[in-house]
Amino acid sequence: MVEFSIAQERKIVSAIPGPKSKELQARRLKAVSHGVGAALPIYIEKANGAIVVDVDGNHFIDLGSGIGVVSIGHTNQGVIDAVSHQVGQLTHTLFTVTPYEQYVEVCELLNKHTPGDFEKRSALFNSGSEAVENAVKLARKFTKRGEIAVFDHGYHGRTNLTMAMNFKAMPYGSGFGPFAPGVTHVPMSYPFRDPEGLTGPEAAARAINYMDKRIGAENLAAIVIEPIQGEGGFIVPAPGFLTELANWAKANGIVVIADEVQAGIARTGQWFASEYEPTFVPDLVTIAKGIAGGMVLSAVTGRADIMDASHPGGIGGTFGGNPVSAAAAVSVLKQIEAGGVLENAQRIEKTLKTRLAELATKYPVIGEVRGRGAMVAIEFVEAGTRNPNKTAVDKLVAHCHQNGVLVLNAGTHYNVIRFLPPLVISDELLNDALDVLEAGLAAL
Ligand code: PLZ
C-alpha cells in the first residue's frame, strides 16, 4: 500500500485560476516567452500521488501526469530517496569524461526490459526529442542510408529534425523552418478513420507501397513509429500493422525505431506498448517521460550492432544520463520490476474503459474510446457523423479544469481528450474525476 502525504481528494477553494495564480500569471507574461504555452494557468506548489495542489490551495485530480511523466506517482517515495541520496553524493561528471555506476545500471535495466531477446546496448540523453534524434543518427550510420519514414498524425519533438518528423505544422513547426531533409510521411493505420474493415496488414500494404514508390526501400535508413500515437490522439494501429511493417523493413535492411516516449515504461500495462503485438520487435526503442519519476532523462535502447555503429565520441552530450536522473530512473525501473505497477495500469484501463463505454452509449458526441492501460482517449465527433468536434473537447476540458480535474486534449484536430493518470490513482478518485466529466457531457 502506498502512503500518501497529501489526501487523495479533489477540493476547490477558489476561483480557477485563483488570485495567487493570477498574480503569477501576470508576472509570467512579463518574464516568460509567449511562445511557451500553458493549457491551464494555475501555478502548482506541490503534489503527491495523483493530486496536485496549486498556490491557492486547490487540489486537482491529475489525469495528465505532466503528459505521461510522473507515471510512478507525484513525489514517489522511492524517487525522493534515490534523488536525495544521489544529490549529496555526486551530481555531475559528464559520463563521457569520467563515468559512474548509475548510468550503467539504467542501461542494464533498459536492455533487460525492452522488447527483443537479442544483445542490446543503451545510451542516455535528456529529452524525448534528443532520443529520437540519436536513434535516427545511429540508424543512418548503421545502414549508410539517409531517408527516414514517419507516419501521419505522429509526433516526435521540437528540434529541427523532429519538427520535420511531426505531422502537424501548427503549433509545432509553423514559421520555424526550413526543416531537416530526408523525412517522408506515410499513411498510418487509424481504424476509426480508415475505410471500414481495412485490416492491419492492408493498412501496412498501403504504407509500404507508399514508401516503396516515394522513397525506395534501398534508400530508407529507418521507419520511426509510435506503437500507440500520443499527441495524435492515442491512435492504436489495427492488429498486424506493426508486424507487417517490421517484416518488410527487415527484408529490406531498414531499421525499425519504436518511439515509446509517451507509451513506454509501464504506461500501457506492459513495459512497452510494442509488446501488445508480440510479433513486432523494434530494432531500437526511444524512451523518456515516465522513466525517471519527473527527473530529466531519455534513452535509446536496442540492437547492439546498431547501437555500436557509431565511432567512439559520435554519441554524447553534457547532461545526458546525469547521476541524479539516473538514480531516479533506477528507482522507477526497480519499482516496476518489483510488481504492481503494470497491474495498476491494467486496472485503470478496465475502470476507464468500462465507464467511458457507458458514456459512449449515452452521448453521441463520443465517436470512439480507445487506448491501452492508463493511456486511454475519447475521440469526439459531431453527433451522427465522424466530423471532428473540437468545440465539445474545449468545453469539456474547461469544465473539468473548473471542477478540479486536470485533463489534456490531443489529436490532429484537437478533438480528443486523453487520460494519462499517475498509475497510483485509486478507482475511487478516477471515478470521481469521471463523474466530473459526465456532468460536463450532460451540460454540453
Ligand atoms: N516522441 C512520442 O510524445 C513528447 C510534447 C509536449 P520531449 N510529447 C509531449 C510538448 O508540447 O512539447 C514526445 C512524444 C513522442 C517524442 C516526444 C518529445 O519528447 O521530451 O518533449 O522532447
The CATH topology of the largest domain, please? Aspartate Aminotransferase, domain 2
CATH A-level architecture of the largest domain: 3-Layer(aba) Sandwich
Strand order of the largest sheet: 4-10-9-8-7-5-6
Overall strand count: 15
The ordered string of helix (H) and strand (E) elements is HEEEHHHEHEHEHEHEEEHHHEEHEEEH
Q: What is the chains' assembly state? A: single chain
What's the overall geometry? globular
N-to-C span: 39 Å
- CATH domain class of the largest domain: Alpha Beta
Which value, in Å, is the CA radius of gyration? 21 Å
Largest sheet: number of strands, sense, barrel closure = 7 strands, mixed
The number of domains is 2
What is the SS-derived class? alpha/beta
Instruction: Return residue spans where pLDDT drops below 50 for at least 5 consecutive residues.
Output: none
Mean pLDDT: 98
- Which ligands, by name, code or SMILES, are bound? ligand PLZ
Pick out its properties:
444 residues, alpha/beta, Aspartate Aminotransferase, domain 1, Aspartate Aminotransferase, domain 2, 2 domains, four-stranded mixed beta sheet, 13 helices, 37% helix, binds ligand PLZ
What would you say this structure looks like, in words?
The protein is of the alpha/beta class and 444 residues long. The chain has two domains: 19-62 and 341-443, Aspartate Aminotransferase, domain 1 (Alpha-Beta Complex); 79-338, Type I PLP-dependent aspartate aminotransferase-like (Major domain) (Aspartate Aminotransferase, domain 2). It has helices at residues 19-31, 65-68, 77-89, 101-113, 128-143, 160-165, 200-214, 241-251, 304-307, 323-338, 341-362, 390-402, 427-443; strands spanning 44-48, 51-54, 59-62, 120-125, 147-151, 183-186, 220-225, 255-259, 284-287, 298-303, 366-372, 375-380, 405-406, 408-410, 416-419. Strands 4-10-9-8-7-5-6 form a seven-stranded mixed sheet, sandwiched between helices. The chain has a four-stranded mixed sheet with strand order 1-2-3-13. It has a four-stranded antiparallel sheet with strand order 11-12-15-14, with helices on one face. A hairpin with a 5-residue loop joins strand 14 and strand 15 (416-419). Helix 12 (390-402) crosses helix 13. The longest helix is centred in the last third of the chain and has 22 residues, at 341-362. It is globular. The protein starts with 18 loop residues before the first helix and ends with a helix. The mean pLDDT is 98. It binds ligand PLZ. The site of ligand PLZ has 16 residues, from helix 5.
